[in-house]
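[step 3/7] fold_predict: job queued, chain A
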Amino acid sequence: MSLLAALRRYAAHGNPITAAGNTVALVVGGNGPFYPLYLWFIEPEAATPALLTMLASPFFLAIPWLSRRSTFAAALALPLVGMANTVFTTALLGAQTGASLFLLPCLILAALLWQHRLALLGMLGLGLLVQQALLRWPWPPLAGLTETQQASLQLLNASSVGTLLAFLALVLSGLAQSSAGAMPAKGVARS
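[step 4/7] structure written:
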């Protein structure tokens, strides 16, 4: 069995929304180890401390396993692990890096995964509170990066967030297409 087939099987779930969340978790967790490498090309001083950001990868990679035990726990874990990783990365590398932009995909994931309005509103509210805290982050980065070094990482983080948002759009369009294929549109007969 190929690695890709094994990953598809690991992400699979009877609930298409949970399966989509599992796929996102695997992609984010799998990309975590590459982030320090990207930083090394742009701002070498940031690469070594950024190795600590890889600590979140196992949590992302465990979400499909968790979804088999509780879809509720998995739906809670994915945006929360993303938010925690965003806060940690911002504290580590600095607010001027644009790392707080990673909260945007977390909010979209909450909207994707939570079907109950009250839970969704709670998760979105938490995400917006975290966003406001990060926008007002008063402490210098733990990695000791200068403002110039932090600013050089903004483009990478903004591009990464844009790529992740595009991936989420593909996942959402796949969900929409699969649910549209399951039911005929009004006034259209299936042969």
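[step 5/7] annotate
The chain has a mean pLDDT of 87.
The chain has one domain: 3-166.
exit 0
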